[in-house]
């Protein structure tokens, strides 16, 4: 087995691929031979990434996952770019500043759930239908959070609990169809989703007392796990 060609001839769709975990996963899929399509809401950021990576196998599409009404149309655009898709990584998500449970408003709750939970549900629905209809032995990977594994009166944690439920339910539905459904629930990863460590790097200062390891989780660690979980497709 050539470890640098695990994903040769594979087509991968990574949502939320313009930064953080999504971008790192896209880079690692590319490095192992895959053709990759990343999504994001800001075209300028996507264009800059494609330009800087300079790989003919990297494509992008502007896509707001909270807009489920136009989901099918955007999905078809993605298929037109790649021809087909073997691996779907539902990474797009938003975080919010923790303010204490009494301060959250319905607007904040809805904002988080439209992307983190509602978006993932309907993306998973259309992805699974596509794989089944085309008899593709593919993979669906959802990005959850360690916050989903503890009781918290917090819209973000609740939305990630929902992702766990979606993942387990869909895995059960597709178990007999040679389609793998998994989720990763990272701890605190050093990405730009949180303002208080935006711009910091693991090389600058990886210390973080909020995890048993006393350090942040690296994007590369989560990306490597993502590739492992989807390598059977």
Element layout with pairings:
Layout: E1 11-14, H1 20-31, E2 35-40, H2 43-53, E3 58-62, H3 71-82, E4 87-90, H4 106-133, E5 139-143, H5 155-174, E6 180-184, H6 219-230
Parallel strand pairs: 1-2, 1-4, 2-3, 4-5, 5-6
Write a concise synopsis of the structure shown.
With 233 residues, the chain is α/β, with parallel strands linked by helices. The protein has six helices and six strands; from the N terminus they run E-H-E-H-E-H-E-H-E-H-E-H.
Question: Can you walk through the features of this model?
Answer:
By secondary structure, the protein is an alpha/beta fold. It has helices at residues 20-31, 43-53, 71-82, 106-133, 155-174, 219-230; strands spanning 11-14, 35-40, 58-62, 87-90, 139-143, 180-184. The chain has a 6-stranded parallel sheet, sandwiched between helices. Helix 5 (155-174) links the parallel strand 5 (139-143) and strand 6 (180-184). The longest helix has 28 residues, at 106-133. It is globular, with a radius of gyration of 17 Å. The protein starts with 10 loop residues before the first strand and ends with a helix.
Order of strands, widest sheet: 3-2-1-4-5-6
Number of strands: 6
Q: H/E element string?
A: EHEHEHEHEHEH
User: In terms of structural class, how would the helical and strand content be classed?
Assistant: alpha/beta
Which features does this protein show?
six-stranded parallel beta sheet, 233 residues, globular, alpha/beta
């Amino acid at each position: 087995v050539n470890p640098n060609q695990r994903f040769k001839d594979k087509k991968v769709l990574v949502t939320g691929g313009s930064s953080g975990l999504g971008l790192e996963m896209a880079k690692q899929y590319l490095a192992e031979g895959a053709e990759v399509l990343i999504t994001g809401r800001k075209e300028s950021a996507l264009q800059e990434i494609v330009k800087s990576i300079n790989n003919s196998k990297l494509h992008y599409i502007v896509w707001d996952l909270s807009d489920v009404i136009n989901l099918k149309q955007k999905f078809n655009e993605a298929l037109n770019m790649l021809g087909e898709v073997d691996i779907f990584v539902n990474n797009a998500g938003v975080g919010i500043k923790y303010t204490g449970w009494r301060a959250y408003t319905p607007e904040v709750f809805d904002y988080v759930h439209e992307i983190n939970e509602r978006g993932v549900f309907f993306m998973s629905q259309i992805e699974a239908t596509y794989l089944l209809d085309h008899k593709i032995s593919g993979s669906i990977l959802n990005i959850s959070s360690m916050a989903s594994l503890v009781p918290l009166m917090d819209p973000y944690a609740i939305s990630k609990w929902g992702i766990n439920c979606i993942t387990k339910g869909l895995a059960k539905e597709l178990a007999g169809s040679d389609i793998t459904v998994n989720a990763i629930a990272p701890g605190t990863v050093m990405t730009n989703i949180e303002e208080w460590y935006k711009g910091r790097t693991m090389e600058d200062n990886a210390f973080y007392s909020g995890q048993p390891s006393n350090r942040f989780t690296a994007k590369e660690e989560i990306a490597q796990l993502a590739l492992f979980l989807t390598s059977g497709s």
